Structure formats: C-alpha cells, structure tokens
Amino acid sequence: MRSTNPIASLLGSSPFKPIQAHMRVVQECAGEMPGLFDALFAGDQEAMAAAKERIFTKEQEADEIKNRLRAHLPKSLFMPVDRRDLLELLELQDSIANTAQDIAGLMMERDMSLPEEMAEPTKVFVRGCVDTCAHCGKIIEELDELVEMGFRGREATKVEEMVDELNKIEDETDRMGMDLARTLFSKEDEMKPVSVVFWYQMIHWIGDLADYSEKVGDRMRLLIAR
Fold this sequence. Notes:
- By secondary structure, the chain is mainly alpha-helical.
- It contains eight helices and no strands.
- It is globular and about 55 Å long.
C-alpha cells in the first residue's frame, strides 16, 4: 500500500485540486491558439472571432478559479507547501492564459497578415508552444501525488524527469522563435514597418506561452528541492 504524507491529511480543504483545475482551463485557453492562427492564414475572420471569444471566455474562467483559490487558500502552518510558492505557481499558470488573451486581442485589433511563406513556420511555432503548455499540464497533474508522497521518492524523480523534458521542448521553441524572427526581418522590405514591429511582438508573445510553461515546471522542481 502506498504511503502518504501525514501533513497533507491535516488539510481541511486541499488547494492542490483547484490549482490542477486552473491549469486545465489554462491549457484549454492556450489550446485555441492553433485554430486562431489557422483562421488567420485562411483569411477566415468569422473563425478568428469565434476562437477569440473562446479564448477570452477561458481566460475569464481561469481568473475566477484563481481569485477563488486566493481567497480561500489555507494559511495553516500545516500546509505541506509554502503558501507563497503556491501563489507564485498559480500566477505563472495564469500568465499563460493572459498571454493567449493578449495574442487573440491583438489579432482582432489589426491586420496581422504575413508573407505567405511565413505562414507554415508560424503555425509550427504556435503548435510547438502549445505542446509545451500541454506537457506542463501533465506535470501539474502530478501535484497531488507529489503531496501524498511528501515530495520525495519515485514520484519526485518522475516529476523532475518530466521537467527536464519540458526544458528541452521549450529550448526547441526558443530556436523556432529565433528562426521566425530572422525570417521576419528578412521580409522587412515587403512589409510595412509597423507590421514588422507588431509581428515581432507577436512572436515574443507566442514564445511566452512556452516560456511561462517552463517557469511553471521550474517552480515544481523548486517545490521538490525544498
């Protein structure tokens, strides 16, 4: 029979399930990104608007979970994890949804068309960053197991290995983002200067989806180390 952390059993209301629920909504929010960009490059304004609405709805849902958890997060000395660490983990997760909302908002505010040859690399980049979010979500799903095992043993090793894999995936998205930025700058003469500026910001935001996901993983590693 699996041993459990006795401290965890002292919690009247565990905050770990809501954190996992929050991450699932964050994933759903980020998961709308590929469809949004597919619609952009297909010139389908109606599909773009629908994706944007779904993203905004999911971001609001994530905010509601975050605010409820903040308001009810136990302050007990028997918490198996420092309250500040949980709040920082929650904020990092929420930054993923916030970034998705920023991307969708900009997409609908102005014409974000690109030279045709940049469409596919951009879609690949977006999918890579969303895949990073998905891998991050799998790590968060291990949080309650980590608590039960006292952040030690086989479960801790498993999560550390998952974080290592997350770091590798995020490194690949960094490479894709840099390649895409170089291609963008090579097309400067074909684009309006302001469009180059906005697309550079867009590439940065897309990369942030993966970057914040990596930071969530790093925060989980820190919880194990403590």
